[in-house]
Amino acid sequence: MARPAGIGSLLDIAIDERVGAPLFHQLYAQLRQAILSGRLRRGEKLPASRTLAQELGISRNTVLGAFEQLLSEGYLVMRGGSGTYVAGDLPDLRPEQARAESAVAPPPELARRSAILLAGQRTRVPPARSTLAPCFAPGFIDSSDFPYPLWSRLLAKSWRQPSRAIVDGGDPGGYPPLRQAIADYLRQARGIDCAPDDVLIVSGIRQAVDLTCRLLLDSGDKVWVERPGFPGIGAAIAASGGSLVHVSVDEEGLDVAEGLRRAPKARLACVAPSHQYPLGVVMSLQRRLSLLAWARAAKAWVLEDDYDSEFRYAGRPLAALRSLDGDGRVIYVGTLSKLLFPSLRIGYLVAPRALAAAFRSARAVVDDQPAMATQPALAEFFTSGHLAAHVRRMRQTYARRQQLLLQAAERHFGGKIVLSPDAAGLHLVGRLADPALRRQGDAKVAEKIAAAGVTVSPLSAYDVGEAGKRDGLMFGYAAVPDGKFQPGARAIAAALGL
Q: What is the DSSP code (8-state) at residue 340?
């Protein structure tokens, strides 16, 4: 086995006998500069003198001479029995330099449209995971019950003697067996008739939106987006040059008639018909048919975001909009990160048959191919039945936690914040029934709750404009431990004087 390269190789130290300076001084000067520039950080361990001498092709005495000089000047320290380390208090690092180290660099000159991306991030309400005691922020799942030992075995199995297809990759659509498994799953679970070649592996909904916009939109094309809705989708569309048309969502889902009045010739509509985010409403059959009729007549496209359809706790699973599409106008997007664990970062896009080749080509240009490391294990996770078993377990967990949240709210909120059960999803929206709370506004109410150490999200953060904004509080429950619901609701009630 080849000897591992050490720090001498990493720092690219160049010792040249033809240079007039002594070798120990060359090494001293380069190590000193590496320390002062931060390439060697405070407290970092240096290799043994013998090892460094071998790497650089010089004598050990030369290395010892450089080390001794650095030790005498305070750049290095010796720790008995442990080795030689960069000192924590560096002599040439003046107070001005120390302040500069921690100062925030001035912002670069960004493109004007970058403001759209940055605003999309600011409007999100990401909770600090460390506050999960308790934390009711939406959008989080419980990954603690994922079968990690099984997952580890599947990963090891696929990489113990990997095939060339796994090592080389090369298919911009993703690992073919995984695409086949997803196609089979969607046919059985969502009533979607698609072929593996229609499936494209992506990193998540935003990459799917970005690819769709690059392929189907010209600059200035109008796009219907839900109001309120997930800010990341709107930011991705706007950053790609699309013109956002915010269409209201009511108890039947996206108001198609409003979209027709405001932008009848829009090029794309982005909807979450099975469980709208953040309101949780389901698009009615009449609205679905109207949306498809508009897309057919306008030669427009519909992007269906089916982000959490697996987590349905009552009634029959709802058919996907794509299953009603007889004209090939619907682009269907789903995610596996909310099913398994967030850092998986794998989702899928199902393209209409006529667009499948174009989507693969666009993906090859933009991103070459999706990362292959986890795809073989994920394919077996599907086909061996482990995915279905995991989803069943998590449905039971999340259904129980929704009930715990409802019980805690009923006990502590005194009817002033009203939560209603939902047949699906990972969060509930609390209506501000108390006039005093409504006058404060949901953002101010959420701030008061945060001051008490509890995280909730104001519904208005997912809306646009000022007139007619929805208000309320979003209570995520999926990632909240069972024992935290009562203390969390009690702390909210105390913070608001309920």
A: S
CB atoms within 10 A of CB 153: 13
**Strand order across the 347-350 sheet:** 199-202, 347-350, 330-335, 301-305, 268-271, 222-227, 243-250, 253-254
Inter-residue long-range contacts of 145-152, CB under 8 Å, 24+ positions, other chains counted: 145/390, 145/393, 145/394, 145/397, 146/340, 146/341, 146/390, 147/386, 147/390, 150/386, 151/377, 151/381
Parallel/antiparallel/unpaired status of strands 347-350 and 199-202: antiparallel
Nearest Cα neighbor of 320 from 187, 193, 191 is: 191
Type and span of the H or E element at 310? none
Query: Could you tell me which CATH class the domain 148-389 is placed in?
Result: alpha beta
Kindly state the greatest CA–CA separation across the chain. 86
- For the domain 127-142+390-496, what is the CATH superfamily, name and number? Aspartate Aminotransferase, domain 1 (3.90.1150.10)
Q: What confidence category does residue 348 fall into, taking pLDDT thresholds of 50, 70 and 90?
A: very high
Please give the structure tokens belonging to residue 251. Answer: 């108890």
Task: Give the CA radius of gyration of the chain.
Answer: 28
Global pTM value: 0.80
List, for residues 284-317, the tens digit of each pLDDT value. 999 999 999 999 999 999 999 998 888 888 877 6
Average pLDDT over residues 137-148: 90
d(CA 89, CA 85) in angstroms, rounded, equals: 12
Domain boundary assignment for the chain: 7-95, 127-142+390-496, 148-389
- Those residues with Cβ within 8 angstroms of residue 204's Cβ, 6 or more apart along the chain or in another chain: 335, 337, 345, 346, 347
CATH of 7-95, one of 1.10.10.10, 1.20.272.10, 3.40.50.300, 2.30.30.230: 1.10.10.10
Distances from the Cα of 278 to the Cα of 143, 193, 231, 282, 460, angstroms = 22, 28, 10, 11, 10
**Using an 8 Å Cβ cutoff, are 457 and 473 in contact?**
yes
pLDDT over 90 (residue 115): no
Distances (CA, A) of 296 to 32, 220, 267, 290, 330: 69, 21, 11, 10, 10
Stated as kind and residue range, the H or E segment containing 248 is strand 243-250
Q: Average model confidence (pLDDT) for the chain?
A: 86
- SS3 category, 305: strand
